[in-house]
Design a protein that fits this description.
By secondary structure, the chain is mainly alpha-helical. It has a single domain, classed as Non-ribosomal Peptide Synthetase Peptidyl Carrier Protein, Chain A (Orthogonal Bundle). It is built from four helices and no strands. It has helices at residues 3-17, 39-53, 59-62, 68-82. The longest helix has 15 residues, at 3-17. It is globular.
Length: 85
C-alpha cells in the first residue's frame, strides 16, 4: 500500500469516526487537534483503517504514534507485515 492511498483512507476514517466530515487533517496534527477524537474514536479509527486497507494493526502500537502521520505509518507497516512485504 502506498502512502497516498493510506493517507486518503486515514482522512476518511477520521472524518467518519469523529463525525466531522469537513475536518481538515494534516500529518502533524494530534488527536487533540481533531474535534471528536477521544479514546473511543481512536479505537474506531484504527478499526475503520483495518477495514479500509486490510491491515492488521496491534492497538498497542497505535498509542506510540504522536501524530496522525505517525499513525498512518503504523498502518502502512502493519499492512506490509500482514501481506508478507
Amino acid at each position: 500500500m502506498d502512502r497516498e492511498t493510506a493517507w486518503e483512507a486515514m482522512i476518511a476514517a477520521i472524518r467518519e469516526e469523529t463525525e466531522n466530515p469537513d475536518a481538515e487533517i494534516e500529518p502533524g496534527m494530534t488527536a487533540i487537534d481533531v474535534p471528536g477524537w477521544d479514546s473511543l474514536a481512536h479505537v474506531r479509527i484504527v478499526m475503520n483503517m483495518e477495514a479500509r486497507t486490510g491491515a492488521v494493526v496491534e492497538m498497542s502500537d497505535t498509542y506510540k504514534a504522536a501524530t496522525v502521520g505517525e499513525l498512518c505509518d503504523i498502518v502502512i507497516k502493519s499492512f506490509a507485515k500482514a501481506n508478507g512485504a
